[in-house]
Design brief:
Shape: globular
Order of helices and strands: HHHHHHHHHHHHH
Strand content: under 5%
Helix content: 55-70%
Distance between the termini: 28 Å
Structural class: mainly alpha
């Protein structure tokens, strides 16, 4: 995602914090007080060629995916009505007791926070910020989170400053991930981000009639199919139970999406409803 505008600022702060401590890949029998286990053990258990392939696929995805942050901005620029009902409620925070769920919903909440920010929903923004901070505390990474949050708090009313913070934070995160091989946890966060931005985009597009005034928006959202393609390619390399289960669902979703929508013009209300039905099922398992 090498763009002039990167991911939402809080999401980037989360990634930095998560990369510093990383997460456990197991979904069952996880003590909430013992979730700060490095995924390096998982990486170290793989042979050299497998590790290198994971690194390569992560780098390729990173380099070729359009920024989800830009997509949210584009949606806002077309004056699409704000729909709070499509977001993952911040009240769900207490449901996330495993590192996998926490990592995925870091990504989900990052996009939700960006969406509320663009639409000037200050109370919702604050609530998502608090929920995100609580997740950081649950992973014992609140100190790193707070360091980044200070910059966000000081510049929250200045969009230009936030963009600069986002760019700097993303570059630092990128370098850290490559150096410390925190790919598994980062991949789970990435999945949350990309699934949520697809879900929000398609949900907002569903009631829009495509014409010359919005054809560029339809084209951009059509190109979000790349998110699913690269997630599938990346998750093919992981062997933990959560990643394998998500991969199976993503593969099925990608096939249906590809068969139903072959061009931006195919993003009709009927097709979007069909695609959203399966995507909503995948997302529901991540946020429940």
């Amino acid at each position: 995602m090498k763009n002039s505008i990167s991911l939402p600022s809080i999401f980037i702060g989360i990634i930095i914090a998560l990369a510093s401590c990383a997460g456990n890949s197991n979904e069952t029998n996880v003590n909430p007080q013992d979730t700060v286990l490095t995924d390096s053990k998982r990486i170290d258990s793989l042979d050299y060629s497998k590790k290198e392939l994971i690194k390569f696929k992560f780098s390729v995805a990173e380099a070729n995916l359009p920024s989800p942050f830009e997509v949210v901005n584009d949606i806002y620029s077309y004056k699409v009505n704000f729909k709070p009902e499509i977001l993952n409620p911040y009240s769900n925070i207490d449901k996330y007791q495993t590192a996998y769920k926490k990592a995925v919903n870091y990504g989900v909440y990052g996009i939700d926070l960006a969406y509320t920010n663009f639409y000037g929903q200050n109370q919702a923004l604050l609530n998502y910020y608090i929920a995100t901070k609580k997740l950081a505390e649950g992973l014992n990474i609140e100190e790193t989170f707070n360091e980044f949050a200070n910059s966000f708090n000081k510049n929250s009313s200045n969009k230009d400053s936030i963009v600069q913070i986002v760019d700097k934070a993303y570059n630092e995160t990128d370098a850290y991930l490559k150096k410390n091989e925190r790919y598994l946890a980062a991949s789970h966060v990435l999945a949350g981000v990309l699934i949520e931005v697809n879900f929000i985009s398609l949900s907002l597009l569903q009631d829009m009639k495509q014409d010359t005034s919005n054809e560029k928006l339809f084209e951009k959202i059509y190109n979000e199919k790349l998110y699913i393609y690269y997630l599938v390619k990346l998750f093919e390399e992981y062997t933990d139970r959560d990643s394998k289960a998500l991969l199976t669902e993503l593969q099925s979703f990608k096939k249906m999406y590809d068969d139903s929508v072959k061009s931006p013009g195919d993003l009709t209300s009927e097709n979007i409803t069909k695609v959203l039905s399966q995507l909503s099922s995948i997302r529901a398992k991540l946020v429940k």
